[in-house]
Write a structure and sequence with these properties.
By secondary structure, the protein is α+β, with helices and mostly antiparallel strands. The protein has two domains: 2-59, Phosphorylase Kinase, domain 1; 67-256, Aminoglycoside phosphotransferase (APH), C-terminal lobe (Aminoglycoside 3'-phosphotransferase, Chain: A, domain 2, Alpha-Beta Complex), CATH 3.90.1200.10. It has helices at residues 20-34, 68-82, 110-128, 133-144, 146-149, 188-197, 203-212, 219-238, 241-256, and strands at residues 2-4, 9-16, 44-50, 53-59, 63-64, 95-97, 100-102, 157-159, 168-171, 176-178, 184-186. Helix 3 (110-128) packs parallel to helix 8 (219-238).
Length: 257
Amino acid sequence: MHLSDGHQDWFVKLNSANRLDMFEAEALGLQEMADTGTIRVPRPLCTGRHAGQSYIVMEYIPLGRGSGKAMAAAGEQLAALHRNTANAFGWHRSNTIGSTHQPNDWEEEWVVFWREQRLGFQLDLAARHGFGGKVLKLGEKLLEKFPALMDHDPVPSLIHGDLWGGNLSYDDRDRPVIYDPATYYGDREAEIAMTELFGGFGGAFYDAYNAAWPLDPGYGVRRTLYNLYHILNHANMFGGGYIGQAQRMMERLLAEL
């Protein structure tokens, strides 16, 4: 919500008191991206608890509509964000993807990180939620054949981690703004894949990103693998048609082999 004292403005998010750790991780992720000076994010100001609720207070950014030029700038600036790298995959703390716990233990091998802390973690959640055997059997087959699908050697890039259309906007000066992160260091293709999951960001965005840092061959197959993580997460949170969608994605990936 937008708060103002008539001189200054802030944006405040509230949740239950036991979700303070989620806001603390969000604040750290926003600050880490802000410190790169590449793409605008709302700077976090403080987190805490009050009256039975947790909160995060951050910079208030008036939003506009975003021109084609701004969309191209978003692609270029996201590539610049991804140029910030680490020596391993993960982050210094766990955070959340939606409302789901997201582990980020440091791992030198990307194949191991994605298999164990992303797909493997979501499949374990699915088993605890009582999902049907077919989804879990397909998941087991996929994890067994994982190295054949993950056939490139990415650098650990700083990524937003949850970059769908609802988390990209433009300020009143036509500059891109991203928010609500699930930050970690991972394959930048996982970020681009998520931008395409729910409709995409438009040609100007992708043309500018690829001009700044072209995607590697084989991305089209890995895109499905990366987006399976988010579809499984939606299945774990909401159930319904996401379960069938995850199953179809796994069948398609196994058919690619």
